[in-house]
Amino acid sequence: MTNMLWKIIYFTSITGFSWCSSTEASPEDQNIPHIAKYFSTKGRYEEVNPYLIKNITAVNSSALQPPSPLCREIHLTAIIRHGTRYPTTKNVKKMQKLYELVQDRVSGTEEWLREILTQWTMWYTEDMDGRLVQKGVQDLKHLAVRLAKLFPSIISEEKLRGGLIKFITSSKHRCVNSTLSFQAGLAEMWAIKDVQFEYTVNDALMRFFDKCTKFIDEVDKNPLALVEMDKFIQGPEMKRVQEKIADRLNVPYPLITDDMVEAAFYLCAYEFAIKTVNSPWCRLFDEADAQVMEYKLDLKQFWKRAYGYDINSKSSCILFHDVFERLDKALNEHKSGQKVTEAVTVQVGHAETLLPLFTLLGFFKNAEPLTSSNFASQTRRSFRTSRMLPYAANFVLVLYDCGGGDFRLQPLVNEQPVIFPGLTERQDSMPLYEDVKRQYEELLKGCDFETVCELFEKNVEV
Ligand SMILES: *[C@@H]1O[C@H](CO)[C@@H](O)[C@H](O)[C@H]1NC(C)=O
Ligand SMILES: *[C@@H]1O[C@H](CO)[C@@H](O)[C@H](O)[C@H]1NC(C)=O
Ligand SMILES: *[C@@H]1O[C@H](CO)[C@@H](O)[C@H](O)[C@H]1NC(C)=O
């Protein structure tokens, strides 16, 4: 057993929870950087669902029309990325280097440049190390409230009090803290003060990428795995961005390295995600530059976590099976007239948890792979991490009983209904559960984590 069960006492006062949300969008809009929708995995959830900017607890139930009014939820699984967090130590170091260069070498009269030089201070420190920020606490609290409004009969006070909502998390503090925040969102909504919630830490499930030897050896620690991204960095699009930034800062081209361009992009992204400010660093990029930066980051995710290599998605086999076993168990309990013991499962992990699973299931797949040379022809790609994996990104599966033996499975990505790849001919976002299982038959029969993650394959895996 690698699982550790943590019993925790719930305190209602983890953080203040504000129900106030601005009804006026305009003052807020000025705070949104013009490049905010290109921040890849450093992006704000609100950019993916912009109606939330006006009202962070708004839900759109009309998008979720079950095929029949008889449909009732049997089980819901939500796999959620942690909320907004501080930069990791590695990125803080890069940001420090850029800041030092700008302080030492740059002068200028433009207002935004003066602001960087005289008012902005480097407030990020290495010890922040990726921890959840206050905005991240709110991300998860608000998500909990919205999911409960969207699925009131299953994410309910009664089920929470009855212990039918189970929480599983990665051991990273940003994930544990996100789990606590999700619980706090529900508890505050229902004014629950007297209940002790539990959660289980399970890295085998939520950080499978750390346990899959073949993935670690062939991709994660293999410098050649990201050759397409490296070529793109050396290519004409990125070179042009570097030069434009050097021009804007009035420094010689060789001073602006790829790491510095990335640090500047991240500074803009972090200042926005963490503090909701439109920082002067954002002025270093125009929209075309941001699209190039986004492509570079998409290339990284594509080759490191998604369709680039088969083992990337296969490393999530353990989570894939866990999801379907739980759906089957709930369905069997329901069919035999028993109470479903685990009505809701909330699982908190990382972008690196969600992306391999999306890939295994076939979501966001384009006809052509992302490469160093096809930036221009990929402008309409569906593989766009800014839209797939903002902070608090989530994948929700809802199993319904629609009466007369008609069981359905609804997938949602970031609260929007999506269609299982391969089940598109029905144009039906709520397919029969048995059709979904037929679609993934090969994976359900195979996809054994131990086998696929072995370094030297025994030639048995499909
Ligand atoms: C936000 O949306 C929720 C759900 O749609 C609604 O109940 C609430 O009144 C809205 N709040 C504001 C301030 O518009
Ligand atoms: C809600 O969803 C419906 C159906 O998908 C869509 O037509 C409508 O525009 C959505 N409303 C909002 C406010 O997003
Ligand atoms: C969770 O995050 C809040 C806000 O950043 C922090 O004050 C608190 O110490 C964190 N709690 C845990 C358990 O890490």
Automatic annotation (TrEMBL):
UniProtKB keywords: Cell membrane, Disulfide bond, Glycoprotein, Hydrolase, Membrane, Signal
Enzyme nomenclature, EC number: 3.1.3.62, 3.1.3.80
Subcellular location: Cell membrane
One cellular component (GO) term of this entry: plasma membrane
CDD domains according to UniProt: HP_HAP_like (cd07061)
Enzyme class: hydrolase
InterPro entries listed in its UniProt record: His_Pase_clade-2, His_PPase_superfam, Histidine_acid_Pase_euk
Keyword Chloroplast (UniProt): no
Signal peptide bounds: 1-25
GO molecular function, one term: acid phosphatase activity
Catalytic activity: 1D-myo-inositol 1,2,3-trisphosphate + H2O = 1D-myo-inositol 2,3-bisphosphate + phosphate; 1D-myo-inositol 1,2,5,6-tetrakisphosphate + H2O = 1D-myo-inositol 1,2,6-trisphosphate + phosphate; 1D-myo-inositol 2,3-bisphosphate + H2O = 1D-myo-inositol 2-phosphate + phosphate; 1D-myo-inositol 1,3,4,5,6-pentakisphosphate + H2O = 1D-myo-inositol 1,4,5,6-tetrakisphosphate + phosphate
Cysteine-cysteine disulfides: 71-402, 268-282
Family listed: Belongs to the histidine acid phosphatase family. MINPP1 subfamily.
Listed name of the protein: Multiple inositol polyphosphate phosphatase 1
Organism whose genome encodes this protein: Cyprinodon variegatus (Sheepshead minnow)
